[in-house]
Amino acid sequence: MAKFDIPILETYLQTPALKSDAMVSDGPFKANTEMQNSLGFPGEKVDNWQQVAIEKMGETISKYRSIPVFLDACVKCGACTDKCHYFLGTGDPKNMPVARQDLFRSVYRRHFTFAGKYFPKLVGAKELDDAMLDDWYNYFHQCSECRRCAVYCPYGIDTAEITMAAREVMNAIGVGQKYCNQILGKVKKIGNNLGMPEPALRDTLLDLEEEIEEDTGVAVKLPLDREGVEILLITPSADFFAEPHIDGLIGYAKVFHQSGETWTLSSYASEGANFGMFIGNYDIMREGALRIRKAALDLGVRRIIVGECGHAWRVAYSFWNTLTGIGGGADDEYALQLQKQLDQNYPQPQHIIEYTYDAIQEGRLAFDKSKNDHRTVTFHDSCNVARGSNMGGIENGQFILPREVIKAACNHFVDMSEGTIKTATFCCGGGGGLLADDLLELRVKGALPRMQALKQSEEKSGVNTLAALCAICKSQFSKVLPYYDFDPFMVVSVHQLISEALLLGENQPREESYSDTSSAE
Amino acid sequence: MSLISILFTVFFYLAVSLCLVGVTLKVIQYASTPAPLKIPIAPAPLTRFGVILRMTREVFLFSSLFRASRWTWLFGWLFHWALVLLFIRHLPYFWPGETPELLNQVAPLKYAAFPLIFGLIGLLGRRLCVERVRYISAPSDYLLLLLLIAIALTGALMTFAYYYPDMGKVYGFAEGLVTLNWTELPTEGVFLAHIFMVFVLIAIFPISKMLHAPGVFFSPTLNQTDDARKKRHIAPWAINKEKSGKGG
């Protein structure tokens, strides 16, 4: 099945012995000149790349406090060394979070610290030479920016920040990754990661409407570019075509339909994902978010809701207000222009899970839970949702709300074991811009801790369904589950579970009456 | 004054100056560098009060380390608290004039030397024996531990093993450093070694990983409130991007 050894699942997760260079390689495919140029990066590695890289490092250090603090503060205590799923799955020492950071830190020390300038050997300071750059490219593309290490670090050192900074430096010298940069080029040009133009999107949505009506006999709509509606839904474009994502999209549509909400998708901002975060580039991340701001202003919506996508939710929840003023509590003109339009009775933006949760709490949705009785469901906390966001505005809401939503639609729910869920959740193995075919070995091995926890739940509780609320998680699991002898179709969208059990047509839909206030908190 | 007294006196001021200037520069750097994005790490507090609680738990209890590795926590936590107690234990030496009543009660704190040494040996043992930690250790990581162990051992020798220096001179020298009434320092070898190493430790503070002490307070993952939807958070350099009129 594969050209590499597939890890064997033990009863318990083992911390592997170090296997030096186990994952050494040329790294993922590099972006070509055209892809690089489309993002404003040099087309190929610049001649004076070392000088440019060091200057870029200096710029990063001066713009992001996290970088100098994290680089200075590490005491090499080792707390993080056994926390990364890529280390646990591969045993490669450079996949230990601190060792990954040290690839960057050693160059930082050499060029930006007294000790590293004058006593490099003593403090492990190193030059950014060809070998180091190779290690950077390889190992900073073996980090999914999941932030599990940061939960355990006594100083909150977040390897994701270092990985982003390193990718930013590499892009600045013309060494970019194909997968991320190609996708970002498509968003910039067309508006979504797929490069799916407006007519194709419209056709897809019409097909879906037909499909739902055939299945249920109810005319559930998936509106596109409708002005003056209440809600703009921003969802990862994978929801438009990939399995099992699309069943989640159907779920959102049914929820909106059943709670009588007016809503729309946007063809201009048809992407929730924002790979600008993965490459650590503020401007590109902001450009992606600005499309959503523009769509919201043009369509005149009063609420913005984000579909099931992990890093999209982190960007939306944590960064949109900063990047574009989508949120609340601004006092500057730029942000207020939008914030005055948005209904501040609701947090802006909201997650679709928050919307569905509120609708359930308010009794606007009814379920036949027995429709999901063939399932014993467990829930995979996606890393960006779990460690980089919140839901519901309550402590740990990002863990509570999805579980409550699932339980509203399913009779059989069990959690995987402690230490593998919630703040301690393991990455699916494909996040952070690593969901590329050329990284398959890494993805399979990186999934090991999650697969191990899943197997335990399967044996103990008969779990046969893995619910996720992240497009990358869903794609990654569909791909890697078979390597561990699981059914690839066991992974479902949370809103697929909702979709299957939701009773349609018994509530009175309130199409076109978006000024209804009964749904306010 | 003897040459050695002059050398140690000068070295003291040099070390303290390096430390103060270096740490101040670092703190200014940290404080003046914006954290442009909200990046609190879970479990993230939703209020400012929650952040204070979190920082208190981290700084006083090492709560994240506790979750991560019980042994490292045990050794590290004992070492740090013992260090604090022993610092207090040393205050009377430097106190100018009559020491306050409270400071006369600190003598029993000398027993903190034992958890201090236990913790340091534990940390060193872990660094040597756990393959993963050995891999990430640079020479400076071992040297710093050895320096601390040597300081602890020389201190313990003077306290518990009859290598007493001339205590009158110790008080005079230490108090003199504070009041600028410089006097001869005791010349027992163990004492000289002890304070020499302490001065080295102070001097290298701002150029070493000891920067984790001020650093932890500036860590955006720990010190940020998770309220990005409620309040707009933006760095000065990012505001200029909006003013340049792109988007919206």
Structural overview:
The complex is a heterodimer of chains A (521) and B (248). With 521 residues, chain A is mostly helical. Chain A folds into 3 domains: 33-176, Fumarate Reductase Iron-sulfur Protein, Chain B, domain 2, CATH 1.10.1060; 190-353, no CATH class; 364-501, Rossmann fold (3-Layer(aba) Sandwich), CATH 3.40.50. Helices cover 46% and strands 4% of the residues of chain A. Chain A is built from 23 helices and 7 strands. Chain A has helices at residues 33-38, 49-63, 66-73, 85-90, 97-112, 114-118, 120-123, 130-139, 148-152, 159-172, 178-189, 198-216, 245-258, 282-299, 310-324, 333-339, 352-361, 383-388, 397-409, 440-446, 448-461, 471-480, 494-501; strands at residues 231-234, 263-264, 303-306, 350-351, 377-380, 465-468, 491-493. A 4-stranded parallel sheet of chain A has the order 2-1-3-4. A 3-stranded parallel sheet of chain A has the order 5-6-7, with helices on both faces. In chain A, β1, α13 (245-258) and β2 (263-264) form a beta-alpha-beta unit. In chain A, α5 packs across α10, α17 packs across α19 (397-409) and α19 (397-409) runs parallel beside α23. The longest helix of chain A is centred in the middle third of the chain and has 19 residues, at 198-216. Chain A starts with 32 loop residues before the first helix and ends in a 20-residue tail after the last helix. The model of chain A is unreliable at 508-521 (pLDDT under 50). Chain B is globular, with a radius of gyration of 22 Å. Chain B has a domain at 64-211: Transmembrane di-heme cytochromes, Chain C (Fumarate Reductase Cytochrome B subunit). Chain B is an all-alpha fold and 248 residues long. The relative contact order of chain B is 0.17. Chain B contains 12 helices and no strands. The interface between A and B is large, with 86 and 70 residues.
Task: Look at the structure and give the mean pLDDT of chain A.
Answer: 95
Give the largest interface pair and sizes.
Answer: A-B, 86 and 70 residues
Order of helices and strands of chain A: HHHHHHHHHHHHEHEHEHHEHEHHHHEHEH
User: Largest beta sheet of chain B, briefly?
Assistant: none
Distance separating the two termini of chain A: 52 Å
Alpha-carbon distance between the termini of chain B?
73 Å
Tally of strands of chain A: 7
Top CATH class of the domain at 64-211 in chain B: Mainly Alpha
Quaternary state reads heterodimer
Query: Which structural class fits the helix and strand makeup of chain B?
Result: mainly alpha
- Report low-confidence residues of chain B grouped into runs of 5 or more: none
> How many strands of chain B?
0
| Helix segment tally of chain B | 12
CATH fold name of the domain at 64-211 in chain B, please?
Fumarate Reductase Cytochrome B subunit
Beta content of chain B comes to under 5%
Tell me the strand percentage band of chain A: under 5%
Q: What's the architecture of the domain at 64-211 in chain B, going by CATH? A: Up-down Bundle
The percent range for helix content of chain A is 40-55%
The helicity of chain B comes to: 55-70%
CATH homologous superfamily heading of the domain at 64-211 in chain B: Transmembrane di-heme cytochromes, Chain C
